[in-house]
């Protein structure tokens, strides 16, 4: 199991595929194992490096609270560990927030940038505060989460759209209350960093071609947030797809378009 010592934390990472170098940054609560299906679809075209964020998955626990600056530094430190001077960067949801921070603090390192279903924070709009879901009763929490993933995901919709129902079932473990204490702590610290994210006023510092991609029915990172991102990043391209927060798995045209851009 490859690990890199980053800021005193053993960070688990994997490098797969062949082609131009692509650093993949995962969503809230996500791990390499959970993102395997998406990562596999990148490896035909790219040499992909993915890692479990501090306190997540098989990486070591975070010592205490941190922000996007520390997470961006982790990503760049991993690139340094791999000997990657320059790389393409794909950030999904929470990973898109980290990717923004990387792109504005180390613009010379990023060749191309894809920001999927994410938000800039501040005046550019914040993603839904997922930490508040824990305050809801279990049944209400699950129903609310489904509608956040895609505004169409009512019980009636899911009853007849089996693929969408499978997506919701696959994500339901994120809401489980009976997780080990270390996992809960890691997720809590990550959600705190997420809630404080604000890169909007610095996005004019992004210096590479950028794609902002969003699902039309996303309740976590609404379309308006992606529109604000695209306005703030010089010459960014905005693409909207049919789906919600998981649009790469809902719209068959989405991932090919992202791959085409990153190539």
List the helices and strands and how they pair.
Elements: E1 3-6, E2 9-17, E3 21-25, H1 36-40, E4 47-51, H2 68-82, E5 87-92, H3 94-105, E6 110-116, H4 138-149, H5 155-160, H6 162-171, H7 181-195, E7 210-215, H8 223-232, E8 237-241, H9 247-250, H10 254-262
Parallel strand pairs: 3-4, 3-5, 5-6, 6-7, 7-8
Antiparallel strand pairs: 1-2, 2-4
Report on this structure.
- Keywords: Hydrolase.
- GO terms for molecular function: aminopeptidase activity; triacylglycerol lipase activity.
- This is 3-oxoadipate enol-lactonase.
- Pfam families: Abhydrolase_1.
- Belongs to the peptidase S33 family.
- With 263 residues, the chain is of the alpha/beta class.
- It has one domain: Rossmann fold (3-Layer(aba) Sandwich).
- 37% of the residues lie in helices and 18% in strands.
- The chain has an eight-stranded mixed beta sheet, sandwiched between helices.
- α8 links the parallel β7 and β8 (237-241).
- α2 crosses α3.
- The relative contact order is 0.16.
Can you tell me the CATH superfamily?
Alpha/Beta hydrolase fold, catalytic domain
What is the tally of helical segments? 10
- Global geometry: globular
How many DSSP E strands?
8
The CATH topology annotation reads as Rossmann fold
- The CATH level-2 architecture is identified as 3-Layer(aba) Sandwich
Please tell me the overall pLDDT. 94
Please report the first level of CATH classification, the CATH class. Alpha Beta
Give the DSSP E fraction (strand runs of 2 or more residues): 15-25%
Structural class: alpha/beta
SSE run: EEEHEHEHEHHHHEHEHH
Main sheet summary: 8 strands, mixed
| Rg on CA atoms, Å | 17 Å
Strand order of the largest sheet: 1-2-4-3-5-6-7-8
What is the first-to-last residue Cα distance? 29 Å
Q: What is the domain total for the residues? A: 1
Fraction of helical residues:
25-40%
Unreliable runs:
none
Domain AB hydrolase-1: 20-251
Family: Belongs to the peptidase S33 family.
InterPro entries: AB_hydrolase, AB_hydrolase_1, AB_hydrolase_fold, Peptidase_S33
Keywords: Hydrolase
